[in-house]
UniProtKB/TrEMBL annotation, chains B, C:
NCBIfam families: SMC-Scp complex subunit ScpB. Residues 212-224 have a biased composition (Acidic residues). Keywords: Cell cycle, Cell division, Chromosome partition, Cytoplasm. Coiled coil: none annotated. Gene3D superfamilies: Winged helix-like DNA-binding domain superfamily/Winged helix DNA-binding domain. This is SMC-Scp complex subunit ScpB. It comes from Pseudaminobacter soli. InterPro entries: ScpB_csome_segregation, WH-like_DNA-bd_sf, WH_DNA-bd_sf. GO terms for biological process: cell division; chromosome separation.
Length: 277, 241, 241
């Protein structure tokens, strides 16, 4: 195709477009066109129509059709590969030509040749209108070319701000609930619902310190055992504490049988420890 | 508005326009504020944005009309761009401004033609563009136009296949110095000649492109996220999103 | 455009400079050009640059003086920035350039508790707040309260570590509709309102805040600039200050 084009000395489409084909007179011996430069068959038709140098409204459709078909024929002779679009248009135009030349028969169905020609004319005019419009558009005063925006826009400072809402009632409720909760928690702690090992140990160490007689654990703790609920935790904690204190050599412990009372006394010395065993 | 700034805001009564000296002073202050706000921005400022920032009740229309009048013969003009306002250098001073011109990407003839078709015929589908031009539109051409942000997908035509419709943006108006789409050069004559119709009109009642290009026409559906995904403009969402 | 608005236009006086009509026209044109050039420039425009771009022989100084005069009472002023000229928002309108994005927020339960403790127990340190609440107070909570401007740092307790003391502000009184801090309901009123149980432990008390929350108590030191710096509320001063 490239070779064929060279042979045909194609006119670059850009130039054709730029010149509006005005100076490309019809006197040219033959129509040599670079088909690649056209935006499809309608564009080619428009170009040919413009070559007629008349208003599209008064254009000779028949002449236009003949020029197009001639162009296609020419391209074929040069073995130019034409896109299918161009060939379809050629077929349609050949049909249009036949309709235009042969008077409309009485029982003919479909559009008359004149109607088909009018449609073609409409499409050409519409395309031309859009082409002109695009030219008018690009020649407007354009932003960044003819007209300019503020070169140094000043920043709008967005201050993010939170606005808080709370009512006095919210505030007082929160305060009252919080203080009350804490006050009641404090009271519970004062009741010592649970004996910790540490507490038990302190109490035992304090109580047994001066005592050298064997004493039942129960009795040591009697005055601390306020109710049956506390008894278990106190017993458990103090027994654990007892074992710890025995291991550290601060206490001696003895029990005569399973579940029998546990007796404690302060450590007497090496001998008494052996005796206790 | 911050507490501190409230102190400075002079309250406005909506009917302040022709009135007492105090009201005129208030109007003049609103004009100054609008001037500062629009002048500060390179982009058009919408009336909604202005309303938010001017004192409550300031009458936007007379304020902007007055400002436009003040600047009408200056080196900088106040222009309306779609729903907004912007200051732009006066077009007759283009010759002084050439130095500031930024090298702009040149659009191909095809792209310009498609742009014009979209502008004058919007909302328009790709098939309709191709019908007008009598040739296929390469995807690259539409992409280029979408990239310039002069063209956008508007919605989908309520016809079989639900084709995407294209239209222009406010940026398009801004770039080409148009207040609105109705200001496109020659649009009235083209409409009169029936050249904005899809088919050769048997009657000449050709609908104008809608004044508000953002509003979908009766036969357009809005684009959904699913549509955008389909069109490759949104990455598909993770399913657990 | 409203009929009456023209009267309110602050005119751009073009006749500030004496001379023949033709000279005034030329000057006015040069003023328009300078206006457009400075407007469109991303940087302040020097007089040398103006000289290059204005018509030969245009007297830069009177042109810029005129332009400055024209804009002197407008929402935008022509100002000198270093060696050049630039447009800047009029200083008195700086507030229109800031936009507040106000977010309504509810105080968290924890914040309300801390706020109430600060109100009743002021001046109070963070450790004391924690002692009253029995849980640690996050820094975020105190920050939030400081942000509300209902709470402020009052001073520092004269104890080891010099902990900051917190108290309420006038804004606090304002917001909660209190005339003075002692209007906060006492224990009996709280019981009466059903907010506190009728039977509270005998050692339970609700403190009476000081009458004047602005006055430091005997064991408080005022906050100094050094303190504020330490607390990150003041940026350190340059040493040569």
């Amino acid at each position: 195709m490239a070779e064929a084009e060279k042979a045909a000395k194609p006119i670059p489409m850009d130039r054709l477009w730029a010149d509006q084909a005005e100076e490309r007179a019809t006197s040219d011996p033959e129509l040599v066109v670079d088909v690649d430069g056209f935006e499809g068959p309608l564009d080619l038709l428009l170009h040919l129509a413009r070559n007629q140098k008349v208003d599209l409204a008064r254009i000779s459709i028949l002449a236009l059709v003949e020029q197009y078909l001639e162009f296609i024929e020419h391209a074929r002779r040069l073995r130019l590969e034409l896109a299918a679009d161009y060939l379809v248009m050629a077929a349609w135009l050949a049909y249009l030509k036949s309709r235009l030349l042969i008077p409309k028969q009485a029982r003919d169905e479909g559009e008359s040749g004149e109607e088909m020609a009018a449609v073609l004319q409409f499409r050409l005019k519409r395309l031309e209108a859009m082409r002109d419009a695009s030219a008018r558009l690009v020649n407007r005063n354009r932003l960044g070319r003819d007209v300019f925006a503020r070169g140094a826009p000043e920043l709008v400072i967005v201050e993010k701000r939170n606005r808080y809402s709370a009512s006095l009632y919210d505030l007082l409720t929160a305060y009252a609930i919080q203080r009350q909760r804490r006050a009641i928690t404090n009271v519970r702690i004062a009741k010592r619902g649970v004996w910790s090992l540490k507490e038990a140990r302190e109490i035992l160490a304090r109580l047994i310190g001066p005592t050298t007689d064997w004493t039942a654990l129960d009795r040591f703790l009697a005055k601390y055992l306020a109710g049956p609920e506390e008894r278990k935790t106190a017993l458990a904690s103090s027994f654990a504490a007892t074992l710890e204190l025995v291991r550290e050599g601060m206490l001696e412990v003895q029990q005569t049988g399973a579940f029998a009372p546990i007796y404690l006394r302060g450590r007497q010395g090496q001998r008494s420890t052996e005796a206790a065993k | 508005m911050s507490e501190g700034s409230k102190a400075k805001v002079i309250p406005f009564s909506a009917d302040a326009v022709p009135g007492s000296t105090a009201e005129r002073v208030h109007l003049a202050e609103a004009v100054r504020m609008a001037e500062a706000i629009v002048f500060a921005s390179a982009e058009p400022v919408s009336e909604a944005q202005l309303e938010q920032r001017l004192p409550a009740g300031a009458p936007i229309e007379p304020v902007m009309a007055e400002l436009q009048q003040i600047y009408s013969r200056r080196g900088v003009n106040l222009v309306r761009v779609g729903p907004g306002w912007a200051f732009r250098t006066a077009p007759d001073l283009a010759f002084v401004m050439t130095r500031d011109a930024v090298q702009q990407k040149k659009l191909s003839r095809a792209a310009l033609e498609v742009l014009a078709i979209i502008a004058y015929h919007q909302p328009v589908t790709r098939a309709e563009i191709e019908d007008i031009r009598g040739v296929e539109t390469s995807k690259g051409t539409l992409d280029t136009l979408l990239e310039t942000e002069w063209v956008r997908m508007r919605g989908r035509r309520r016809t079989p296949g639900r084709p995407v419709t294209y239209g222009t943006t406010d940026r398009f108006l801004d770039h080409f110095g148009l207040e609105e789409i109705r200001d496109l050069p020659g649009i009235e004559e083209l409409k009169g000649a029936g050249l904005l119709a899809q088919r050769m009109p048997s009657n000449f009642s050709v609908p104008m492109p809608p004044a508000d290009t953002d509003e979908l026409t009766a036969d357009e559906d809005p684009l959904t996220d699913i549509d955008l995904e389909e069109l490759g403009l949104l990455t598909p969402r993770a399913t657990d999103d």
